[in-house]
Amino acid sequence: MSERLVVVGGDAAGLAAASQARRMRGADELEIVAFERGSFASYSACGIPYWVGGDVAERDDLIARTPEEHRARDIDLRMRTEVLELDIEGRAVRAKDLESGAESRLSYDKLVIATGARPIRPDLPGIDARGVHGVQTLDDGQELLDTLDRIEGKRAVVVGAGYIGVEMAEALINRGYEVTVVHRGSAPMSTLDPDMGALVATAMLGMGIEIVCEAEVVEIRADDAGRVRSVVTASAEYPADVVVLGIGVTPETTLARAAGLPLGEYGGLLTDLAMRVRGHDDIWAGGDCVEVLDLVSGRERHIALGTHANKHGQVIGTGIGGGYATFPGVVGTAVSKVCELEVARTGLGERAAADAGLQFVAVTIESTSRAGYYPGADPMTVKMLAERRTGRLLGVQIVGREGAAKRVDIAAVALTAGMTVDQMTALDLGYAPPFSPVWDPVLVAARKAAGAVRARG
Amino acid sequence: MSERLVVVGGDAAGLAAASQARRMRGADELEIVAFERGSFASYSACGIPYWVGGDVAERDDLIARTPEEHRARDIDLRMRTEVLELDIEGRAVRAKDLESGAESRLSYDKLVIATGARPIRPDLPGIDARGVHGVQTLDDGQELLDTLDRIEGKRAVVVGAGYIGVEMAEALINRGYEVTVVHRGSAPMSTLDPDMGALVATAMLGMGIEIVCEAEVVEIRADDAGRVRSVVTASAEYPADVVVLGIGVTPETTLARAAGLPLGEYGGLLTDLAMRVRGHDDIWAGGDCVEVLDLVSGRERHIALGTHANKHGQVIGTGIGGGYATFPGVVGTAVSKVCELEVARTGLGERAAADAGLQFVAVTIESTSRAGYYPGADPMTVKMLAERRTGRLLGVQIVGREGAAKRVDIAAVALTAGMTVDQMTALDLGYAPPFSPVWDPVLVAARKAAGAVRARG
């Protein structure tokens, strides 16, 4: 007897789940219907800043698999179709074709919720002015590019200085805009500690990006035609022909909330380790709409990142396909290339460690990406946190140039394994002059951290 | 009461040990005398191929710290002074000043043996012809460059195709020589499995390096003046104006052997985890003259690598200084940049795994260094070995371009932690389009390996 799987959301998590389920169960035993309200499916949202900035030439380069390719593999992918309601009791969804306006109801045996995240749009006067853009979906990216093509002015304001905010600031300056970044924190990149974020600020200034710190936006002003004209903070007004919201994203769980499904502190769906929605054996959720366990702090977090979404989809599809897989959690690894810098972090920063009740030592070292005598050796700053007394690694932040970012993977694996910084000093990392000084920068940091743990006691 | 520490060998391990001991104990309580028979101390032997090839301009760029700098820190470093005998019973060494010929005897309270390694010189007719060079020490490198300056011919033969052999072949072709590499194996880079070594062979051929595989050198022919003329194998003769030996190195333990100290299967000194020579509480040994525990195979190996030598020196100096540190062993990580490729390996290859009595699955995947749509995404091949049944990671080999080599560190940490390939599939590695596809190549390999473990049972 054939079952029906309904997937709500047609990007990384949803369609990875559908694809994996299809690999394991043929169309004769599992019917798969997937709904996507946007115009695009299976794309790399992480690539949008590079497309806007011109590094990636074509929008379609970001699309991993077209709707037709999914349909050819017996996944009934219905584009521009918005799910309006999850009827958990009735085991059905209600959907609306956004082209025709027709509504329909479809029952399911198994349900996957992969509704993603949406950019945070602060409740400000003028937030809905034309020319104010979030950049979460490919549709968002296209709308922003349409605005850039249409407007004549060259003044851009980015609100917020998280990864997306900084990447978008760089993309816009590469397109010839005057860019001002307005943000609340004391340094850009709030996923870094402020001392490390300050290195990013220096690089942004070096590219000609204006940064306004510790500034709260209170209003967005528009002209009579409803087009954005400026961004207003408590103390200043910044003229703007276009505004990009880079404040971050929040789980898109409107449907899940209405259906009474369990949500966490950040508004994301809560699942078990097999990515099943807690208390619901036949409902899975994954990607940017869920909260994930942070293995270092022991708490749930919301992290919108394509690599997690793909892993979730793989786990979900394996479960639906009758196999066994889990997503054990994250350590909070993130890397970014911004303003000629490579920036990376994993684990906990000072604030998050303190919030988790951890006492720690924090050390910072300067080293180079290659042996000092080898051409192209670039400076690299590594900050490392270790738990007081146990010496357990808690987190690493790296800011440097070529070769800096992916070094954070060393720490990501060490965090997963629960290593101490003293154990890390003996790690057998790859060494050759074109790739590392004889002591890898991560080992230099580990040595200093181990010394600090001993000294602090 | 002051003690005397005698250090035999003035490169990475010996002088790192001396420096760390000095940091912990002042000159009033510890006298330090170090003997170095060569003309250089504290240099990066790993950098020699780049100096010969011209990437590093000056010989002195490779010197981390001059003899004068060591002396300024109360380390009595005696250059061009060869230790002739270790008198273990008498707790003294006998040394000869190579300039004056004067011999002396010096007692010690603590002894560090850091005599390094020497290039393997096969016992062949003609091996001592002028123009036949090993490249282990900075003196060796200088002699090779002197030969290159003197000779007019442009034909170079490299015997052996390990890391040094391939790096030297590249250095010589960059200097305008016609280079032939003659080696015994079926592919270059015997630290890689032959299927991965074949990728290196292709790149070498692409640079115009001639490779002769499965060829045993039987003779080196010289002209009447004693200058090298050709390299002869069982089936052919290769004209040569200069010959570089890249066969590998062997521990330089002549003194230790004569003194009856314990040596292992590869002729290296055997130590405990604190790097003390087994059975001798006041004698330490480290660097290229010792064997180290391979944590994956559980056996002792000989690995000549500056990063290990520095770690050994740190551990030894800490012990002599009255602290506590150990060198737990290696997982066999090595990275190299050869012929426009980045090459890396860690853990066991197929041969070593079988020799250790392990049954395993081996998988190979092709991926890219960045998201496929991001400019500069280069192909990368990852081979992964996992133990049958347990799924424990056994080894990884990577051949690619930019961004390939240091990815091996992910596997080096996972090996150290004893992770299974299934556990690795959930690793939270850094992802952003400029640095990785959404599934990092190492994760793609881990997924495939985990599947192979399940299938094989």
From TrEMBL, chains A, B:
| InterPro entries to which the protein is assigned, alphabetical | FAD-bd_OxRdtase, FAD/NAD-bd_sf, FAD/NAD-binding_dom, FAD/NAD-linked_Rdtase_dimer_sf, Pyr_nucl-diS_OxRdtase_dimer
Q: Which residues form the FAD/NAD(P)-binding domain?
A: 4-310
Superkingdom to which the source organism belongs = Bacteria
In Pfam terms, one family for this protein is: Pyr_redox_2
Keywords, sorted A to Z: FAD, Flavoprotein, Oxidoreductase, Redox-active center
Which Gene3D superfamilies does the entry link to? Answer: FAD/NAD(P)-binding domain
Cofactors demanded by this protein = FAD
> Which SUPFAM superfamilies does this chain map to?
FAD/NAD(P)-binding domain (SSF51905), FAD/NAD-linked reductases, dimerisation (C-terminal) domain (SSF55424)
Keyword Oxidoreductase in record = yes
| Residue ranges of every copy of the Pyridine nucleotide-disulphide oxidoreductase dimerisation domain listed in the record | 336-438
Please report which protein family the annotation says this sequence is part of.
Belongs to the class-III pyridine nucleotide-disulfide oxidoreductase family.
**Which protein are we looking at?**
FAD-dependent oxidoreductase
